[in-house]
């Protein structure tokens, strides 16, 4: 009777809250899902470190997976205290910072679309999808990590809300299904030798794991968090006070974990039909 009651409560919890949140503990968890190549598709040079720096360290340095970045804008409007800076100079500085930060996380492959920061919705969406498709068909990821296609209001308090994020997420998801896999979607790419590619799994950056179904988290407490901080601090045009970076990333990580002693990065998992 007690067992039956517990099972009923568990079932009700699942019905009310969707699938329970799971944790990825080890590299074997990824192997079982046949994940060997990972592409992160983001909008600005420092998005990945902020939202997934510890996860990238785990995937790349601990699990030895092939991990690459695709960044849609060049970050040429990013906040700067130097009022003498112009956009061309800032974009060049941020490119160098991107490689320095990626190096801390063991990343060598970076694709940049170099669109103007803050103007992504002004880019022809077909061009954006074509360019993302080209990278997907070149790198051939098993897992694509990107932004949710709609604004995540939980991100507002951490200053990570931006229209470029949702535009990038929408376009990337459209490439996952169906543009990347249908050769007629961009026949010109097919004619150039970019063969269709199916991505079976997508992770969307998630701040509130209790408000999401099929959410998953990775515990980045410890070395992974330290590496994330080191990587974000490479973006010197954006961040100068190291303690402020530690504090803000701690605030974000503990908000996701809902535990002051643990820092998580979280994602909503989408399994894409073939
Ligand atoms: Zn951003």
Notes on the protein architecture:
The chain is α/β, with parallel strands linked by helices and 274 residues long. It has a single domain, classed as Rossmann fold, CATH 3.40.50. The protein is 43% helix and 17% strand. The protein is built from 9 helices and 8 strands. The protein has helices at 2-17, 27-32, 47-62, 87-104, 125-139, 163-179, 187-191, 223-232, 242-257, and strands at 22-23, 37-42, 66-73, 109-115, 143-146, 201-206, 215-219, 264-271. Strands 1-7-8-6-5-2-3-4 form an 8-stranded mixed β-sheet, with helices on both faces. β3 (66-73), α4 and β4 (109-115) form a beta-alpha-beta unit. α4 (87-104) packs antiparallel against α8 (223-232) and α5 (125-139) packs across α6. It is globular, with a radius of gyration of 19 Å. Residues 1-18 have low confidence and may be disordered. The site of zinc ion has 5 residues, from loops.
TL;DR?
The protein is of the alpha/beta class. The chain is built from 9 helices and 8 strands.
Question: What distinguishing features does this structure have?
Answer:
274 residues, alpha/beta, Rossmann fold, eight-stranded mixed β-sheet, 9 helices, 8 strands, 17% strand, binds zinc ion
CATH superfamily membership: LmbE-like
* Fold-level CATH name: Rossmann fold
Identify the overall geometry.
globular
The hetero compounds bound to this protein are: zinc ion
- Mean pLDDT figure: 91
CATH level 1 class label? Alpha Beta
Largest sheet: 8 strands, mixed
Biggest sheet strand line-up: 1-7-8-6-5-2-3-4
Helix count from the secondary structure assignment: 9
CATH structural architecture: 3-Layer(aba) Sandwich
């Amino acid at each position: 009777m007690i067992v039956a009651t517990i099972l009923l409560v568990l079932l009700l919890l699942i019905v009310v809250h969707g699938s329970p949140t799971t944790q990825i503990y080890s590299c074997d968890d990824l192997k079982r899902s046949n994940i060997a190549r990972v592409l992160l598709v983001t909008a600005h040079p420092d998005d990945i470190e902020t939202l997934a720096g510890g996860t990238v360290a785990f995937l790349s340095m601990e699990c030895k997976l092939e991990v690459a970045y695709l960044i849609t804008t060049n970050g040429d409007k990013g906040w700067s205290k130097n009022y003498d800076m112009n956009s061309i100079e800032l974009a060049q500085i941020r490119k160098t910072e991107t490689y320095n930060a990626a190096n801390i996380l063991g990343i060598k492959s970076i694709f940049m679309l170099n669109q103007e920061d803050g103007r992504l919705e002004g880019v022809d969406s077909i061009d954006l999808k074509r360019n993302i498709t080209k990278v997907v068909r070149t790198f051939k990821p098993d897992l694509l990590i990107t932004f949710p296609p709609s604004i995540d209001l939980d991100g507002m308090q951490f200053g990570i809300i931006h229209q470029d994020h949702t535009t990038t997420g929408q376009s990337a998801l459209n490439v996952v299904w169906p543009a990347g896999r249908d050769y007629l979607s961009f026949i010109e790419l097919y004619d150039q030798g970019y063969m269709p590619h199916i991505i079976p799994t997508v992770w969307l950056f998630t701040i509130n794991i209790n408000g999401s179904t099929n959410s998953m988290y990775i515990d980045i407490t410890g070395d992974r968090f330290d590496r994330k901080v080191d990587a974000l601090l490479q973006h010197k045009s954006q961040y100068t006070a190291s303690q402020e970076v530690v504090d803000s990333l701690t605030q974000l990580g503990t908000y996701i974990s809902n535990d002051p002693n643990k820092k998580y990065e979280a994602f909503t998992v989408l399994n894409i039909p073939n």
